[in-house]
Structures are given as C-alpha cells and as structure tokens.
Specification:
Blueprint: H1 15-24, H2 35-55, E1 62-68, E2 75-77, E3 82-95, E4 112-114, E5 133-134, E6 141-145, E7 148-149, E8 156-157, E9 160-161, E10 164-169, E11 173-182, E12 195-205, E13 210-214, E14 220-221, E15 223-228, E16 235-252, H3 255-260, E17 267-268, E18 272-276, E19 282-286, E20 288-289, E21 295-302, H4 321-336, H5 341-356
Parallel strand pairs: 16-18, 17-20
Antiparallel strand pairs: 1-21, 2-19, 3-16, 3-21, 4-6, 5-16, 6-15, 7-8, 9-14, 10-13, 10-16, 11-12, 11-15, 18-19
Helix pairs in contact: 1-4, 2-4, 4-5
Length: about 375
C-alpha cells in the first residue's frame, strides 16, 4: 500500500481558501480576485449559513442547556442565537448532604467543609440563601467532605455519586471553575488527592441565579469541590451537589393554545411550553413553577458563528465544504458571472442534498393502535 499523509488538516479550512476555490469555478483566479470581491464573498457565506439554518436541522448546531426556574415566574428570555427549541424537560434532582449531622463541622468525623481562600464554606451547603462564602483571595476553593462515621476499626467512609451540580453566586461575576473529586480511599486534606471531574470555562453567574451543570462521567467519591482557576475571587451563595436526576418531558403548544389558559400565574408543576420567536426568544411555561421545581433542561438549534475575516474557519463539518463552495459559486455567479448561475445553482442543490442526506438521527418508531 502506498503511504498516505496521515493528516486531517482539511477538516478545518480558512475561509479564503474556500472563496478562491469558488472564484476559480467561475474562471476568476489569482490576482483577478479583487479585495472588494473577497469582501463580497464573505457576506455571501454568511447569507448561505443563514439560509441553511432554516433549510434543515443541522445536527452540529444542536445544543443542550439548562434554564434556572424561579417560583411563580412563567417567562424566560433565551439566548439570541437560539433558532428553535427541539425538546424541553422539567428536571428534578436530590441534593446530597452527609447522612450525619451536617450542621456541625468537625474534622475527620462528621460532614466537613473547606474554604481555601477564606470565607465560611459551611454557608453554601445550608438552606439559608441569605448567607454565603465570600473569599478574600484569588483562586480559592470550596469543598464538601461527606466524612467518616464511627472513627476507629469499624469506621465507614461516607460517599456519594454526584451527577448534577448547581452553583449560585452572591454577586454577578464570571468564574472559571474546575470541579474536582476526592475518592473514598484518599484524604481531602492532601492537595494531590483531588481528581478533575469537570472544567467549566469562564462563565457568567448572575447574582442569586443557580447555574446547573451535568457531570458527564460521574464517579463515587468522598468529597467534591469547586476551585477557581482563572484569577477571580469566589463569592458563592449556594452549591448543590445533586443526583437522582429525572427529566419529565413537557409539551409544546401554539401561541393560540397558550393564550387560552385562564390563569397564567397558577403555580404547580410545569407541563407545557410555548416559544415566542422574538428578536430575543422568549420561553413561556405553564403552570409557573412551584418552589420545588427549579430547573428546565432543553435542547435547541443555534445559529452558526458569523464569518468575519478571511482567516476564520466556518462552523460546519468538513462534509459540508462542497455544498458551501458550490453555494458560494452560485452566489458569486449572480454578481460576477450571470451566465454560469444556472449551472452553479444545480451543482449547489445536488451537493447540498448529498451532504445532508445522512445528517439525520435514525431511530426505530413503534406505532401501536388503541
């Protein structure tokens, strides 16, 4: 067998290369492509990406996120880059605390807390949202140790498997957090015993709003902690180490059906949602959440990143490059070579169909009669 390159660099190609390929298909090569034509091509790429957003469901644009719920509030502003909601689930979970008396912090016995960086770490694990842990040094951490029962030869190391973490800040601030765990056979006092569990790149935490995060690969551990790694000071109101996660699907309704509900402020378990596709998309849920319901999990289609310069790459998988190049060829032909537009359009439609043919989720559907 002849040797191959063993490289995959064409999976991410600069925009200028795609543009020049499209111009070459129109017979416009090299120095014949002006700076104004390059700028025109960048605009055309952005218009093509907008067209694709409404043309099909691009699997690479699907995202999952959480919406913190507030008791009695039925209206929530969503990110502007959201195009459409695919599914919404009401999520429930159980906060895990020591099976012993968590109100007492005693080293090596009951549930213990640590707050390297200052502050009273115990405050973030109680139910009092008027308190918190305000640290006085950068890159601090706050940890929870489930502790040891019956110290001595019959001691039991308490553990838990955390699958869902909620973090509520005292102040509106960005944090760059590492979520870490310490396994049952290790000592949380030993800095080397902490193992990475989840990295949360710089993220905005509005004051008093719980931001939720899934633990992708949960493990059973004795202790968990959050640690600031971006040079900020932690000022945290509550930390929720949760598991027993259950998602309950809630149904989509039309604007008309939503408007027929007489009491929009009814508090109970949310069962339906309506997405108002405004410039700032707004999600309406009904009934409004009772206090025990504090999180929605939802999947959605999002806009692709804009192309701003010739050195950018396009937020698409490599298999879509042929379709994008032919689509760009068609757009450029309309402006610079009208006689080639019909040919380029046909090539574009064929390339797009080929590229998106397998961009679907294949599942088995069972239909049963009543």
């Amino acid at each position: 067998m002849l040797p191959t390159s063993d490289s995959y660099n064409f999976q991410s190609v600069q925009v200028e290369i795609l543009i020049r390929e499209a111009f070459e298909r129109l017979g416009i090569t090299g120095e014949l492509v002006s700076a104004l034509q390059l700028q025109s091509a960048v605009r055309s790429i952005n218009l093509i990406l907008l067209e694709w957003m409404g043309k099909t469901t691009n699997l690479w644009t699907l995202r999952n996120d959480f919406i913190p719920l507030f008791s009695g509030q039925g209206q929530y502003i969503l990110p502007q880059r959201l195009l459409d909601i695919v599914q919404v689930n009401l999520r429930s979970s159980t906060r895990q605390l020591s099976p012993l008396n968590i109100g007492i912090a005693q080293s090596n016995t009951l549930a213990t807390y640590d707050g390297a960086g200052g502050g009273n770490a115990a405050n973030v694990y109680n139910a009092d949202i008027t308190t918190g842990c305000t640290q006085n040094a950068i890159n601090g951490n706050i940890s929870y140790d489930f502790g040891i029962s019956n110290p001595g030869p019959n001691q039991v190391i308490n553990t838990a498997t955390i699958t869902f973490i909620g973090i509520q800040s005292n102040v509106t601030r960005d944090y760059d957090l590492a979520i870490e765990q310490c396994q049952s056979g290790d000592d949380p006092a030993d800095e080397g015993s902490w193992i990475p569990l989840l990295d949360i790149a710089e993220f905005s935490y509005p004051a008093g709003v719980t931001q939720w995060f899934d633990i992708i690969a949960p493990v059973e551990a004795r202790a968990y902690r959050i640690r600031e790694i971006g040079g900020n000071i932690l000022d945290i109101r509550q930390i929720f180490n949760n598991n027993n996660v259950f998602d309950f699907n809630i149904s989509n309704v039309s604007r008309y059906e939503y408007n027929t509900y007489p009491n929009k402020n009814l508090q109970s378990r949310p069962s339906i949602y309506y997405l108002d596709r405004l410039l700032k998309p707004t999600l309406y849920i009904w009934p409004t959440p009772a206090p025990q319901y504090n999180c929605l999990s939802y999947s959605y289609k999002q806009m692709m990143d804009d192309v701003d310069s010739l050195t950018d790459t396009v937020q698409i998988p490599a298999k879509m490059y042929p379709a994008l190049i032919w689509g760009l060829t068609y757009q450029l032909a309309l402006k610079f070579s009208p006689q080639l537009a019909e040919m380029a359009e046909a090539k574009y439609e064929r390339a797009f169909d080929i590229a998106t043919k397998e961009d679907t989720e294949d599942t088995i559907i069972s239909i049963r009669g009543s």
